[in-house]
Design goal:
It contains 15 helices and 13 strands. By secondary structure, it is of the alpha/beta class. The protein folds into three domains: 108 residues, NadA-like (Rossmann fold, 3-Layer(aba) Sandwich); 95 residues, NadA-like (Rossmann fold, 3-Layer(aba) Sandwich), CATH 3.40.50.10800; 79 residues, Rossmann fold (3-Layer(aba) Sandwich), CATH 3.40.50.10800. A five-stranded mixed sheet has the order 2-1-3-4-13, with helices on both faces. It has a four-stranded parallel sheet with strand order 6-5-7-8. A four-stranded parallel sheet has the order 10-9-11-12, sandwiched between helices. Strand 11, helix 13 and strand 12 form a beta-alpha-beta unit. The chain is globular and about 55 Å long.
Length: 309
């Protein structure tokens, strides 16, 4: 009963505040249920830019809410739990990347969307896991530094016949990085008829055992369009809600029990309500100075431009 009342309160508050709720696929099921839009980083970036809401409640992690603010600076953007951060985004600082740029002015800086707003101001273009390979190939033949995910960069180099064109930062998503080949082999033994679907933030030796490699949304689309009935899922467990909801006749097995992003799971329905009311101490309204928005938006808009080509 409490959850039903909360859902009704949230629904009414959205109308009053002229707000929309955006949620990443890695959020808890109840958060995905009440969201107006659920997506991966790329989808949510586009929605943040193209909507009529006055307020965006972003149920994700800090860099995602910052991205929404950069793309929609006139809107109020609120992160329900301000401590919801990202280890990968925190693995590179503005000062470190600035030092690299000053020493290597001839490099194209490609920044994963999993970075802070300040880091984005130093990037030539941003990417997400769904468009990274396409955008990297756009700059083929040029010197590239990819930040901060080492694994997606190594995967791109592998696809380009082990080219060393792409240099990379020593960052990673620990949730995906900690997957090991033994877990893949075990699950394939337990479920021999299942297709293995893995996110490209995993290590290359793990990716080589996959039947399909793709972003969260690409994994969802693959399953939807597949005639297969069983799948081993190699990304954060929050995706299972969408997969099971959209594919009632199919079975899913999580590649590892450790595929849980704790910060993605921090947001509760109560937090969403409080964010709409702007009460309590957990939420944060995202505020960025105009210069940061201007410079960071250049990289994000370049991403949107190249993705649509």
């Amino acid at each position: 009963m409490q959850n039903i009342n909360l859902l009704e309160e949230i629904k009414e508050l959205k109308k009053v505040k002229k707000a929309i709720i955006l949620a990443h696929y890695y959020q808890n099921p109840e958060i995905q249920m009440i969201a107006d839009y659920v997506g991966d980083s790329y989808q949510l970036s586009k929605i943040a830019k193209n909507n009529d809401a006055e307020v965006i409640i972003f149920c994700g992690v800090h860099f995602m809410a910052e991205t929404a603010k950069i793309l929609s600076p006139q809107k109020k953007v609120i992160l329900p739990v301000k401590t919801a951060g990202c280890i990968m985004a925190n693995s590179i600082t503005y000062e470190e990347l600035l030092a690299f740029k000053q020493e290597h002015p001839d490099y194209i800086i490609i920044g994963y969307v999993n970075t802070t707003a300040k880091v984005k101001t130093l990037c030539d273009v941003c990417v997400t896991s769904s468009n990274a390979l396409k955008i990297i190939n756009h700059y083929k033949g040029q010197k590239i530094l990819y930040v901060p995910d080492q694994n997606l960069a190594k995967y791109a180099n592998y696809l380009n016949q082990n080219s060393d064109q792409i240099e990379y930062w020593d960052g990673c998503c620990n949730i995906h990085h900690n997957l090991v080949t033994g877990e893949v082999k075990l699950q394939k033994t337990l479920h021999p008829n299942a297709k293995v679907l893995i996110h490209p933030e995993a290590r290359l030796d793990v990716l080589k055992l996959a039947d399909f490699i793709g972003s969260t949304k690409e994994i969802i689309d693959y399953v939807k369009n597949s005639k297969e009935k069983e799948f081993i899922i190699g990304t954060e467990k929050g995706i299972l809600y969408a997969l099971e909801t959209l594919n009632l006749d199919k079975k899913f097995y999580l590649l590892s029990p450790n595929l849980v992003c704790r910060t993605m799971k921090l947001t509760t329905l109560e937090d969403v309500k409080n964010a709409l009311l702007e009460t309590g101490s957990k939420y944060e309204e995202i505020k960025l100075d105009p210069k940061t928005i201007e410079l960071a938006s250049n990289a994000l808009n370049k991403m949107l431009e190249l993705s649509d080509k």
